[in-house]
Design goal:
The chain is about 40% helix and about 15% strand. Strands 1, 2, 3, 4, 5 and 6 form a six-stranded mixed beta sheet that branches. A three-stranded antiparallel beta sheet has the order 7-8-9, with no helix packed on it. The longest helix is centred in the last third of the chain and has 41 residues.
């Protein structure tokens, strides 16, 4: 079954929008010395282990220094997790001791039919991923056959977890404090007050005008809130689409391994392609979920922050007389 294709313009727009969130740092991986089966020549064993470590370290994988791994294994009873009764528990302790996100054990059985398997464990001793492949020699050197097998296994193993940047909530704006009017100054005792001038004629009645202060309305935050929430919901829907597509691709890539079978050589390229497609779809789903949640949260925050305040009444008066015009205003 082929996963549905995604329009290129949509992927390009989403990639430009989510580029900062997708640049997460890569976690370190503790690589256990590769276990070589059926080889008694120490020089060949060292060559195979070197090839194994070199191929695993390619790409985005950052390995813990080998001296830290050796220091941990020297304290183990059998000096190796491959010989332990429960290799996953030993690898979990290795990841914890080296502060790595994953610990990996590669087992290699070279020969005309070269078999290679990988075991990925997190610091809690839980198996994250486990794969096995085999390649038959077609006349190429044994070193090239081993390198090809390890490279294909690395492309299928889930070595590095996806990191999601946590959301940082914006602090609420400080409340506005109204300044109190200055107190009225009392006259000093003993100081004569200024007498008002005599009124020659009574002014006409003042024309009183009473009105209400206009109530506050919505600002630019409301349309921005709606737009942000709409884009966020669309990103969440797109995340679900990516998750379903990635899951379908992973299911298709695992079918040739059902019932402990090994796929033929002709299907390995298609399996590798499906694994890569599944990984890409899962990464896009995680990033799209993060950005969608952030946009929806921003829209809700702007909408709640833009609610209109209750109107306060205000009074103003206009007085017209023979001596001039006076305006009296009383603030709420």
């Amino acid at each position: 079954m082929t996963s549905p294709s995604t329009p290129r313009p949509l992927l390009l727009a989403l990639g430009l929008l989510l580029a900062p969130a997708a640049s997460a740092q890569t976690d370190f991986v503790a690589l256990h010395p590769c276990a070589i089966v059926g080889e008694k020549d120490k020089n060949k064993v060292q060559d195979h282990q070197t090839t194994c470590a070199t191929e695993i370290a390619r790409g985005d994988v950052q390995l813990v220094p080998s001296d830290q791994v050796r220091a941990f294994l020297d304290k183990e009873p059998k000096k190796s997790c491959a010989l332990a009764k429960k290799p996953s528990e030993c690898l979990g302790r290795l990841a914890t001791a080296t502060q790595a996100s994953r610990a990996v054990l590669i087992t290699l059985d070279p020969g005309q039919l070269t078999r290679v398997s990988g075991l990925v464990v997190n610091p809690r001793g839980e198996v994250v991923d486990q794969k096995s492949i085999q390649i038959r020699s077609r006349g190429q050197p044994q070193s090239e056959l081993v390198r090809t097998a390890i490279t294909r296994l690395r492309e299928q193993l889930n070595l590095v977890p996806l990191k999601v940047t946590p959301l940082v909530e914006q602090p609420a704006p400080p409340p506005l404090v109204a300044a109190a009017p200055p107190p009225a100054q009392e006259p000093t005792p003993g100081t004569p007050r200024a007498e008002a001038p005599p009124v020659t004629s009574a002014p006409p009645e003042a024309l009183g005008v009473s009105q209400r202060a206009p109530s506050g309305g919505r600002t630019w935050k409301t349309p921005v809130a709606y737009a942000s929430a709409g884009v966020g919901v669309a990103a969440l829907g797109l995340a679900g689409f990516f998750a379903i597509s990635g899951n379908n691709a992973m299911v298709d890539s695992n079918r040739p391994y059902a019932d402990n079978r090994y796929p033929p050589q002709s299907e390995l390229a298609n399996i590798s392609r499906l694994r890569g497609e599944a990984t890409t779809q899962r990464i896009l789903a995680g990033v799209s979920t993060t950005v969608g949640a952030a946009l929806v949260g921003t829209g809700v925050y702007l909408w709640l922050n833009d609610r209109p305040a209750s109107p306060a009444p205000g009074v103003s008066a206009l007085s017209v007389g023979p001596g001039g015009v006076s305006i009296l205003g009383v603030l709420p």
